[in-house]
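Hi Y.,

Following your request, here is the sequence exactly as I used it, all 173 residues.
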Amino acid sequence: MLVSLDTPYVDTCAADLSLALGGPERPALHVRDLTLPGDVRLRLRLLGASHQVVLATPGGGPTGTGLTETVACLPGRSPHLPGTLHDEAGGYRFTATVLRPAAGELHTRIVALRADLADDPYALVGVFPGDPDAVTALAVRPDPPDGSVGWRTWHAYPQTNELVLTETVVALR
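Below is the corresponding structure, written out as tokens. Let me know if you'd prefer a different format.
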């Protein structure tokens, strides 16, 4: 799902981002609710040029009944976006990569991303006004074979020529 957002960027660059697990749902510019097999529910939330994913599972799995992941500029918190975070006991794996593409490559990547995810029933792409390359996108793997749920995100910062890629996998068993 491709949505045009009516708000300017609130994040300035990749170095300003932090990862937070838990905490409340933050005010969102757009929300997409998904239900996956096994009654796994995901809420994809666009926060400025950032994202929040809320996962709710039927009881009993390692995630308990839910998990909230936020990647954003978080007030009162020093920026820190880890390259990797693995909590094997909790079944949570997170990776983040910051790319600084060659001239023109960011635009090419964003055009392809928008085309790939525009009609995906498990994706949400927010496009910010003023620059078609200013996007935040989330895409869920709807039916992973290994008893997990996963999602990927893209945060594009054309003003600094940065693309932040994240990938999360959460074990459900």
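The mean pLDDT is 90.

Thanks again,
Q.
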